[in-house]
């Protein structure tokens, strides 16, 4: 076995690991990046990018079907060529992956180790069966993997996860989607719009990222106009019969017991941090009940078992805090930088929480969740709420995308904006405006002083801000209808 001694070892060449490598390399020439699986990152290979490519195809189909609403007739049946859809998804996906691989060429081949890494002791990693690596500092950036309950195993090799979807050469006829979370809704709606017969089954009522019941219920009703989603499904049996999965469940609404056959069972029931195979018990770290090290979200430094600050850092989906791409990048940068400057650490800038789900209508959350805000403020009735609907919002009506609502929160007394949950057309953009306002600690009245062009969807945001301002009782009461702004409001 080869023996090596380095300053910094980074485990995982995903988005967090690559950011960590860049930051650490500014501090030291002795940085090794270890990858046990495929190069190219989860985001580009099987995550953000291929899922958005599939969604883009589904949007094209949807717009073609919806064109008649504008008086534009697309003659005959809309035909989905599943092979062509998947060929484009894979072609563009491969191009995104190739960009990642190109960017990795600046890493000296001698500093790229291929193999699964595990701890032998706090400063020693065994990589594959070929290298024993001594490292002064270590960054864990191992990402996360899909997880599912054991009873799904009855589906055998018809049990699939997101990675498998992007391997398809053609679209299947039917899929039972389990998990109406972010992945289940994005992929479920896209597959439905591409002509795949499906139902989405959940547990406990959760739907996407929403915590606000009013927004969640609205989204639930809206998605169900498009395809079947039961966030609190009564699934009685999952069986394998021939090449198919047989699901027996009580139908939402009717309560009828149905037994249906599907080509696949897609498990979208959450992701688990990849910490199991790291032998973290050898690393001398304090671990939580999921086996994830205790760490600081500002330095990404892990704590030792005796609670002293350690020489190991953890970034990206591996720490499970905010499993999103921009967070993985930011955390990787902070972790790599601190691994390089250890023991003189710097607290990194952490942005406010921002999450966007690329369904139609889109879902977005900004700032702490409603539940977190309530916990923070206790039962003091300190949170004001402002609400607006997209149903009569001018631009949304123009585009025939007038479905959705948003709820905004602010602090009574100070009038400071706190966060929001949005469900509506293209709210990805509004969510950014709100996140940027939150970063700048803007008050609701200051946000209302910003320009709003006409006619744009953001005029709907102004309506919600006005409602919020009124409920703060800090400004003039909201008018029934804004006379000076016209139908965009
Ligand atoms: C279907 C899907 C859609 C998504 N869409 C979005 C989106 O639209 N927007 C968004 O912000 N986020 C999205 N995400 C989340 C985003 O992809 C992740 O947050 C991000 O990729 C995490 O990066 P990472 O570096 O932490 O993990 P990864 O990119 O997974 O990197 C971890 C790497 O570590 C390697 N590894 C693991 N264990 C070891 C070991 N012991 N030794 C060596 N190597 C190891 C793995 O092989 C892997 O390459 C999506 C995720 C999925 C699954
Ligand atoms: N647009 C984006 O930014 C984007 C897109 C995809 C994924 N992601 C990231 O990936 C993470 C993982 O996504 P995910 O969708 O796997 O997780 P998730 O936590 O968003 O959703 C999992 C869902 O599965 C449900 N569930 C759990 N057990 C179940 C069971 N036995 N049967 C049916 N339903 C069950 C949960 O109630 C939940 O609704 C997300 O949290 C997100 O951070 C982000």
Automatic annotation (TrEMBL):
Its EC number is 1.8.1.4. InterPro entries: FAD/NAD-bd_sf (IPR036188), FAD/NAD-binding_dom (IPR023753), FAD/NAD-linked_Rdtase_dimer_sf (IPR016156), Mn/Fe_SOD_N_sf (IPR036324), Pyr_nuc-diS_OxRdtase (IPR001100), Pyr_nucl-diS_OxRdtase_dimer (IPR004099). It is an enzyme of class 1 (oxidoreductase). The keyword Chaperone does not apply. Belongs to the class-I pyridine nucleotide-disulfide oxidoreductase family. Its cofactor is FAD. The keyword Oxidoreductase applies. Keywords: FAD, Flavoprotein, Oxidoreductase. Pfam families: Pyr_redox_2, Pyr_redox_dim. It comes from the Bacteria. Gene3D superfamilies: 3.30.390.30, FAD/NAD(P)-binding domain (3.50.50.60), Fe,Mn superoxide dismutase (SOD) domain (1.10.287.990). Residues 7-332 form the FAD/NAD(P)-binding domain. Residues 356-464 form the Pyridine nucleotide-disulphide oxidoreductase dimerisation domain. It comes from Halomonas kalidii. This is Dihydrolipoyl dehydrogenase. GO terms for molecular function: dihydrolipoyl dehydrogenase (NADH) activity.
């Amino acid at each position: 076995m080869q023996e090596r001694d380095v300053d910094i070892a980074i485990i995982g060449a995903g988005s967090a690991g690559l950011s960590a490598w860049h930051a650490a390399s500014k501090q030291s020439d002795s940085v090794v990046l270890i990858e046990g699986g495929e190069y190219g990152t989860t985001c580009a290979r099987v995550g953000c990018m291929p899922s958005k490519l599939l969604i883009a195809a589904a949007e094209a189909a949807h717009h073609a079907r919806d064109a008649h609403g504008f008086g534009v007739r697309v003659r005959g049946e809309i035909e989905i060529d599943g092979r062509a859809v998947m060929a484009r998804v894979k072609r563009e996906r491969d191009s995104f992956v190739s960009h990642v691989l190109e960017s990795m060429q600046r890493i000296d081949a001698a500093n790229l180790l291929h193999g699964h890494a595990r701890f032998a002791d706090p400063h020693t990693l065994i990589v594959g069966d070929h290298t024993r690596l001594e490292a002064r500092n270590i960054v864990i950036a191992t990402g996360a993997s899909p997880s599912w309950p054991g009873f799904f195993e009855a589906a055998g090799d018809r049990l699939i996860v997101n990675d498998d979807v992007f391997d398809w050469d053609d679209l299947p006829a039917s899929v039972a989607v389990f998990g109406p979370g972010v992945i289940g809704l994005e992929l479920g709606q896209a597959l439905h719009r591409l002509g795949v017969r499906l139902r989405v089954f959940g547990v406990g009522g959760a739907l996407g990222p929403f915590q606000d019941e009013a927004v969640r219920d609205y989204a639930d009703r809206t998605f169900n106009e498009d395809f079947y989603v039961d966030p609190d499904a009564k699934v009685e049996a999952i069986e394998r019969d021939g090449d198919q999965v047989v699901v027996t469940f009580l139908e939402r609404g009717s309560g009828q017991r149905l037994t249906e056959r599907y080509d696949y069972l897609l498990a979208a029931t959450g992701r688990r941090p990849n910490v199991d195979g790291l032998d973290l018990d050898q690393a001398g770290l304090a671990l939580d009940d999921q086996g994830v090290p205790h760490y600081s979200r500002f330095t990404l430094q892990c704590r030792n078992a005796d609670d002293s600050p350690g020489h190991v850092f953890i970034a990206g989906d591996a720490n499970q805090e905010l499993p999103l791409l921009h967070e993985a990048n930011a955390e990787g940068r902070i972790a790599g930088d601190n691994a390089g400057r250890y023991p003189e650490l710097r607290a990194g800038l952490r942005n406010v929480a921002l999450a966007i789900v690329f369904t139609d209508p889109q879902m977005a959350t900004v700032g702490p969740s409603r539940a977190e805000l309530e916990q923070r403020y206790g039962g003091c009735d300190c949170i004001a709420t402002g609400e607006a609907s997209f149903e009569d919002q001018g631009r949304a009506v123009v585009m025939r995308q007038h479905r959705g609502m948003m709820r905004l929160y602010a602090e009574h007394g100070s009038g400071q904006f706190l966060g929001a949950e949005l469900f509506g057309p293209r709210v990805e953009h509004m969510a950014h405006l709100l996140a940027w306002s939150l970063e700048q600690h803007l008050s609701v009245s200051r946000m209302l002083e910003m320009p709003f062009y006409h006619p744009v969807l953001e005029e709907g945001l102004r309506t919600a801000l006005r409602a919020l301002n009124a409920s703060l009782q800090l400004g003039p009461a909201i008018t029934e209808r804004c006379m000076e702004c016209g139908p965009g409001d």
